[in-house]
Design brief:
By secondary structure, the protein is α+β, with helices and mostly antiparallel strands. It contains 9 helices and 10 strands. The chain starts with a helix and ends with a helix.
């Protein structure tokens, strides 16, 4: 796979993990893990699935006699044992529950459970990302720059958005704080939390897909800085010049990544 393909895959992995994380909660919370999205994440990571009794398991490593397995249910537990042992502990028959030894295993799985819920999700997310080759050469970034420029100049807003997503990942750009949000403009940038609790946002990129206008502000702006906030608002309304506009923004991105 190319660097771009691997980077897109990482972004997808992180998006799926974020979606699952939002559905994880305590028993009292009433939240139910989104198993469909978790299954997508596991399949994206290349983990094979198997059925044991009424359970859906994913093999993380090893074989059915001994390995690491994730049980796809609301607990998201990772077991290190055999598939048969998981079946007995998670879905025992009436006959199996007659045995005192089995009852002890069913009631206490601490000896075989490695993690649950959020810890399990972090493990899977990290393993999926670690399998990707995210090393890049200068030529890879130059190609992303070229694709972004071409998309912007041709008015291909979907491809522009993809290019911005890729560079945002490389530059650790995030969604803006509330005071920097705009209804019709896609905005991403660096967030810096100050010791006094205030937040600065920037450098940042602003894209209006309706008008196909791309802008870049190269300096951080604090929500408490009245003059700078006024400047930011004017830039969003096309009433002031940004630090860079148009295809040259992708040159700024390239320079920042390769710095």
């Amino acid at each position: 796979m190319s660097f771009k393909e691997n980077l897109l895959k990482k972004i997808k992995i992180d998006e799926l993990a974020k979606s699952v994380r939002e559905t994880i909660g305590s028993t009292e919370s009433g939240l139910r893990v989104d198993k469909d999205v978790m299954a997508q994440l596991l399949e994206l990571g290349g983990y094979p699935s198997l059925k044991e009794r009424d359970l859906t398991l994913y093999t993380l490593e090893g074989d059915i006699d001994h390995g690491r397995f994730l049980v796809l249910d609301n607990d998201l537990a990772i077991y290190q044992t055999s598939v048969a042992d998981i079946g007995l502990r998670k879905s025992p028959t009436v006959k199996e529950m007659i045995s005192i030894r089995n009852i002890k295993r069913i009631l206490n799985d601490a000896d075989v459970v490695l993690s649950r819920k959020e810890e399990t999700l972090r493990t899977i997310q990290n393993e999926c990302v670690d399998r990707l080759d995210l090393h890049f050469e200068t030529s890879d970034i130059e190609e992303l720059e070229k694709e972004g420029k071409t998309a912007l100049e041709s008015g291909d807003t979907e491809r522009v958005t993809e290019s911005l997503m890729l560079f945002s990942e490389l530059l650790s750009f995030e969604s803006p704080p509330p005071s920097f949000r705009s209804k019709d403009i896609e905005i991403k940038g660096n967030i810096l939390k100050m010791e006094n609790g205030s937040v600065q946002f920037g450098p940042m990129v602003l894209y209006d897909p309706v008008q196909n206008i791309l802008k870049y502000i190269d300096s951080p702006i604090g929500g408490f800085e009245k003059d700078k906030m006024e400047y930011f608002k004017k830039v969003t309304k096309n009433e002031a010049d940004a630090s860079a506009e148009g295809p040259v923004v992708f040159e700024k991105f390239k320079a920042s990544v390769l710095r």
